[in-house]
Amino acid sequence: MELNFKDGAFSKLKNKKRFVSITIIAATAAILCAILPGPLGGLKYYPVKHQIAPLKSILPKWPSRNDSLLQFASIEFQDRLFGPESIEFNPQGNGPYTGLGDGRIVRWMPDRGWETFALSSINWNREECDNRDNPRRRVRNEHVSGRPLGFRFDPRPGDLYIADSYYGLLVVGPKGGIARPLVRGGRDSYQVCQRSRCSSQSTLPTQARAGIAVDLPCSLSRSFLPEMLHHMVIVEGENTGRLLQYDPNTGNAVVVLRGLAFANGVQLASDQSFLLVVETTNCRVLKLWLKGNLTGTLEVFADLPGYPDNVRINDKGQFWVAIDCCRNRIQEIMTSTPWLKSLVFRVPVPLSWIMYVVGEKMYSVVALFDKRGGCSGGWKTARPGS
After folding, report:
1. Of 64, 143, 318, 351, which is the most exposed, with the fewest CB atoms less than 10 Å away?
2. With contact defined as beta carbons under 8 Å apart, do 308 and 325 qualify?
3. Which of 168, 70, 179 is nearest to 117 (CA)?
4. Element (H or E) spanning 21, and its range?
5. pLDDT(252) > 90
6. SS3 letters across the chain
7. Residue whose C-alpha is closest to residue 85's, from 74, 98, 75
8. Its GO CC terms (predicted)?
9. What distances in angstroms separate CA 99 from CA 43, 62, 118, one per listed residue?
10. What percent of the chain has pLDDT over 90?
11. How many Å separate Cα 59 from the centre of its chain?
């Protein structure tokens, strides 16, 4: 019998073949996802819903001039310092000091170059921790070496207070050496943080006789590899971060804030009237009022176009915020649909591929904010990965 194309028989046949092909591909993908491990390697993974300010509502308030001034900056000591986190100068203006991925805090000496100033862990040893030819192995041994992520000097005695992601709140004298733990006991102390293998504490401002630190513990039941911790916190969207205040008189830390999503930086205002706390996962900076009629009030200081990583104050009372930029609509959708995020991160392909597909942009922005949260300028790198 002659096939009459006008009757649509050929079109129906094509549609049927297309449907069968799509079904086979979908079934194959489902089987592979069920059998093969995804980029998270079979780790326990519980994404949760969280809301971030839409990018379209932020960009109109963002400075139209976004210079690439950092294109003139150079990357120094790239093969000599692994994973530098936080920068500080001592009360005499010497330094800088920075914390490395191998657990050391190093300082710059003009006549000698970089030298080890302090260690977070008494268990630090050269065989496990100082393997400069194999950074991945060093990361796997973070639980031995420690990971100093934030520190500040007390200007009067010159002691250096350290926030370490494995060993908690520490202090070391002006001459350096092995840091000693500060917090004793208490359910909400850093000892709990240490047992739960918390992932990220950040900059620790010390003012008068009180120190304030940010810590971000993970669930006690987790079995994440150290290098996966901060990735998992962002991917899951969990909000187990806390802001803690340490009292040197009692040796205990009290919880000031709970429910922070990847707490990743803290800074006191110049007049100590408020405190800024960075939330990386939620792409924003929070303000906690410490004085006046609004004491104890928490509000959004600034919503950001990307993922912030630390905050520092300058001599004018303005705030510098480093941002990994920029997020997009796909990422915003995934924050409100945990089931979709769970599905995507179970696809058996490298994590870098997934990040590329969802549109992660790998460049950095340094933004300057006034006391009210207004952004007066942003300076970005001109090349990816800088």
Report:
1. 64
2. no
3. 179
4. helix 9-35
5. no
6. CCCCHHHCHHHHHHHHHHHHHHHHHHHHHHHHHHHCCCCCCCCCCCCCCCCCCCHHHHHHHCCCCEECHHHHCCCCCCCCCCCCEEEECCCCCCCCEEECCCCEEEEEECCCEEEEEEECCCCCCHHHHCCCCCHHHHHHCHHHHCCEEEEEECCCCCCEEEEECCCEEEEECCCCEECEECCCCCCCCHHHHHHCCCCCCCCCCEECCEEEEEECCCCCCCCCCHHHHHHHHHHHCCCCEEEEEEECCCCEEEEEEEEECCEEEEEECCCCCEEEEEECCCCEEEEEECCCCCCCCEEEEEECCCEEEEEEECCCCCEEEEEEECCCHHHHHHHHCHHHHHHHCCCCCCHHHHHHHCCCCCEEEEEEECCCCCEEEEEECCCCCC
7. 98
8. vacuole
9. 28, 32, 9
10. 24
11. 22
CATH code for residues 83-181: 2.120.10.30
| Average of per-residue pLDDT values in the chain | 76
Task: Name the CA dihedral angle for 218, 289, 59, 383, rounded to a multiple of 10 degrees.
Answer: -60
Average pLDDT over residues 139-147: 80
Tokens in use for 277?
């706390």
pLDDT score of 331 more than 60: yes
Average pLDDT on 60-74 reads 72
The predicted structure's pLDDT at residue 269:
92
CA–CA separation, 319 and 315 (whole Å) = 9
Q: What is the pLDDT of residue 279?
A: 92
Q: What is the pLDDT of residues 262-280, one digit of tens each?
A: 888 889 999 989 999 999 9
Q: Would you say the C-alpha torsion 324, 326, 332, 334 has a positive or negative sign?
A: negative
Q: For the residues 323-342, what does the mean pLDDT come to?
A: 83
**Six-digit token pair at 88?**
């500080």
Q: Give me 318's structure tokens.
A: 């303005």
Segment 291-295 shows an average pLDDT of 92
What count of Cα atoms within 13 Å lies in the side-chain half-sphere of residue 221?
4
Rg (CA), the chain: 24
The structure tokens 């597909």 sit at 357
Q: How confident is the model at residue 339 (pLDDT cuts 50, 70, 90)?
A: confident
